[in-house]
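Schema walk-through. Below, the input block comes first and the output block second. Nothing else is stored per chain. Lengths vary across the set, and this one has 168 residues.
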Amino acid sequence: MILVYFKEGSKNKNIVEQLLKEYGEEFKEVGDNHLEQTLVQVFSNQDEAVSNQKYEDFLFLDTMKPETIQQFARELNQKGVHIGRVAVRTENNVSWKLGDLMEEVDQEFRYFLLRDRLYELVSHPDKERLEKDPSYLKLMSSIYALIEDPKTPYEDLKRALVILTEKK
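--- output ---
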């Protein structure tokens, strides 16, 4: 079964649900009322989703096969649906509370968005600033090193973005 969480007003809901039906995948819509339940509890109860305001759209692909996941993702992309917060079942996360898993996935999503933003800035430096500020190139090199290190904390990347985008 697939767990789906759609933020209230999501434009993706009908498209995702229709595609899941086409794939023959069972799914359950979850809401903020499920966040304090473990995944096992969420799967075993019949509670309907009540209020979805805390998180952005999220999918928990519990039973979908890896090759199907890739095709499903391609079809969503083709339909203009981009859901960056997706998780699959692991031995560890099945005992987690749904809210904890969603928070973890959301943090990872924001981390990678920030890394992508920094990579874009480092890849396309401000030519004017490069000419005027001799330390700018060194700054870009340092930030590139941060981006490449997978252990760089989110807060360090946030500071790097502020430093890189501040006007000199």
